[in-house]
Amino acid sequence: MMDSRRESSETLRNKCAACYRQYNRMEHLVEHMKVSFHSAHEPRCGVCAKHCRSLESLREHLIGPLPKVECARVFAARGCSICLNLFDSAAAVRYHRASTCQFTRAAPMPRGSYGGRAVAMACKMVGGGSDGSLDICARVCLIGEDENVIFQTYVKPTTTVTNYRYEMTGIRPEYLRDAMPLKLVQRRIQDILCNGEPLWKIRPRSSGRARILVGHGLEHELERLGLEYPAFMIRDTAKYPPLMKTSKLSNSLKYLTQAYLGYDIHTGIQDPYEDCVAAMRLYIRMRSQAHPRDYASGSGETQNNYPAWRQRELERMSPEELLALSGSDYYCWCLDF
Predict the structure, then answer these.
(1) Whole-angstrom Cα distance, residue 75 to residue 19?
(2) pTM across the whole model
(3) What GO molecular function annotation could you give as one example from this UniProt entry (predicted)?
(4) Is position 43 within any domain?
(5) For the domain that residue 216 is a member of, what is the CATH number?
(6) What mean pLDDT, rounded, does the chain reach?
């Protein structure tokens, strides 16, 4: 009986302070911390304080098909299903939803952003090739943080269009007949993004004039436009870990907008402006998370201070002390402030 209690106590001591997984031996917990990249930036349950790898995991924890019962009960009474935060009362939740959290398809200017350093871009593609499956950029839109259009145009195709995908794009042949040539579109977008700064001079986290590019699935859109832009200046809502389904699967922009902004898009013909607004609002919401601003994340394993030579020292630490040594393996957008 005594051995059983000792084993239970030992297992509890070897419980991860972030995700609450329990291990029989302390060295197993240390190994877990080396690869888990738990950090202050992870989404956290407002009830039990458990860290989740993504907002999708937190959503499952709180309001999924099989939620944590106690957390779900408290959250149902005082939680916001959009931002997943917990409030003092049901009345506070209703006020929060009505005043700051629930968006509509209309485009009010976000508080405190007048133009801003970020620019959102979205494209609409028509089909080329014998079966119409080749994506050809036919329309592009760029907006600022104030949701005002900076640049919008139809793009003259450089190859034959075999499927205009009208039901989705609303694009007709006559719209592209006298459209802006691709070369000119490339130049205009490059000028907007670089903002007077040479492309080769742009550096990570610098105070230069170049703008942050926001969007959903930007790698494909930049490829179709024939453009290059530094990866450290791109904020892609399809690849941001807290917004992804898993580490390998992305959520659609339609789902992210409905789940984390509270309104629907793509209910008819798709407008690139609407996609720009949704991506920009998601970016601003993620950037505004209440995380430590001086937290140095995004450098992968270099942020986890668990070298082999410290193994014995690490095994004597508490789970909370181990967590303090851990860092994120992605760059958190709150650091853009």
Answers:
(1) 19
(2) 0.91
(3) nucleic acid binding
(4) no
(5) 3.30.420.10
(6) 90
